[in-house]
Amino acid sequence: MSVLEKSEWERDQRRQKREQIKERMKEKEMRYVLTKYSGVFSACVAVLGVVSVFGWNFKNYKKQQRSYQLAIAASALSQPHSKRPIKDYVHREDEEQRLRQTLRQQDLSHPRILVFAGFYGCGKSILFRSAIRKEKMAAAFVDIRPNEDPLRSIVKSLNVQNIDACGDLLNFIGEASDRARKAMHGVTPLFVLKIRDGSSLLRIYNEAVALACDRRLCHVIIEVPIESLTIAMTALPRLDFHLVPNFSVSEAFRYTHHLIDPLELTHFVEVVGTNSNDLDELLAAVRHAHMSATTYTNQKLVKAMRQLQAAWAKDPSLREAVIKLARFPFEEGQSEGYDYSSLRNEALRDIVMYNAVADVWMFQKKVFHTAACCWQ
User: Where does the chain cross the membrane (predicted)?
Assistant: First the structure.
């Protein structure tokens, strides 16, 4: 190598070192690094975006599958009822013990569907929850609303997110019940079906029988307002009917938390009754409308008397039938000797009712019974 070539080579080496030093100095500045490697960063961000979108779509795809929905349903059905105390619950020792004994007597080898009937506001729902909680049972509470498929309502109560992916709903509920039973080491799951206003026992009868009796996959309890029951419903096979009464006097006092004068509340109970809906209205009138309980009770009675007077105004036979019905205790009703054509008259539809479970005619509310007694 000549001297000139060697000199040129050394200059190139020094120039490269200077460039490397300059590059290192520039790379200490973040802005230069971002500019220099912007292509690499963009590619990484794009890849990360593609991966995240793919993962999100794949996760959602799995959630839409029937197997995923089935796992959710089985998990919901096998979860024991909450141990937290029920807010504002009035302990009903006799009714609760009777219900708990009935729950323990259920046998899947001899399946029966239990139907608990009571007036609106008698405390059926909260009584069920308390008994099931104390029995440490896993249960699904289902609201059966009008114009909605009963099986769809059951699946919805199991926290299923995509009902359309479940396929045949009866088979889906059966598989979920089977998985839940295995998860609970052979304990049969329980469905509590609550029939809402406008719905009917006849709408859910076939599905309930298919689940509890034909396939024997679960126990079924139906909660139904006694006002909606008919003779045809009580004649359906495989149903055992039980009545849930209104509060007793002592339970009514506990329900109002002793916020009302005892004498005034006693007067209210004697005239209007112990239904929780009536007690709620009384509390609202006393606490928010600043009305005395006695005044409110008298207003309720006068209103009921006027309603009776308007109902039988055009037909004296209706008055005679109502007065005759009032001679029997409100809770017992009239089982014989009644005027059937008069009591089933459209004018008395909101006043009297036929109790298909006890096979008696009775007043829908005690205040009507009291009002009829006042007209005697």
Answer: 37-58
Of 248, 57, 30, 70, residue with least CA distance to 163 = 70
Interatomic CA distance for residues 179 and 193, integer angstroms: 20
Question: For the whole model, what pTM was predicted?
Answer: 0.79
What does the alpha-carbon distance between residue 119 and residue 113 come to, in Å, rounded to a whole number?
A: 20
pLDDT above 60 for 8: yes
Q: Which domain holds residue 299?
A: 249-374
Cβ(260)–Cβ(266) under 8 Å? no
Check residue 365 and give its pLDDT. 95
Q: Which stretch, 104-108, 160-164, 281-285, has highest mean pLDDT? A: 281-285
Q: Render pLDDT for 268-299 as a digit per residue (tens, 0 to 9).
A: 999 999 999 999 999 999 999 899 999 999 99
Give the pLDDT of residue 220: 93
> What are the structure tokens assigned to 67, written together?
């197997």
pLDDT of residue 307: 95
Residues 6+ apart with CB under 8 A from 294: 264, 267
pLDDT of residue 260: 92
Contacts of residue 276, Cβ cutoff 8 Å, sequence gap at least 6: 121, 122, 123, 246, 247, 255
Using N-to-C axis directions, what is the helix angle for 150-157 and 169-183, rounded to 10°?
Answer: 30
User: Rounded to an integer, what distance in angstroms lies between the CA atom of residue 342 and that of residue 362?
Assistant: 13
Listed in sequence order, the residues at least 6 apart from 135 whose beta carbon sits closer than 8 Å to its beta carbon are 100, 103, 104
Q: Specify the DSSP class assigned to residue 79.
A: S
Q: What is the CATH number of the domain that holds 99?
A: 3.40.50.300
CA quadruple 234, 238, 243, 244: dihedral sign: negative
CA pair distance 331, 274, nearest whole angstrom? 11
Out of 218, 243, 268, pick the residue that ends a domain: 243
Q: Checking DSSP bridges between strand 352-355 and strand 239-243, what pairing results, if any?
A: unpaired
Q: Is 249 in contact with 279 (CB distance < 8 Å)?
A: no
Would residue 321 count as lying in a domain?
yes
Structural domains counted in the chain: 2
Same domain, 268 and 356: yes
> Can you tell me the distance from the alpha carbon of 359 to that of 240, in angstroms, rounded to the nearest whole number?
15
The gap from C-alpha 340 to its chain's centroid, in whole angstroms, comes to 37
* 128 and 144 together in one domain: yes
Same domain assignment for residues 237 and 295 = no
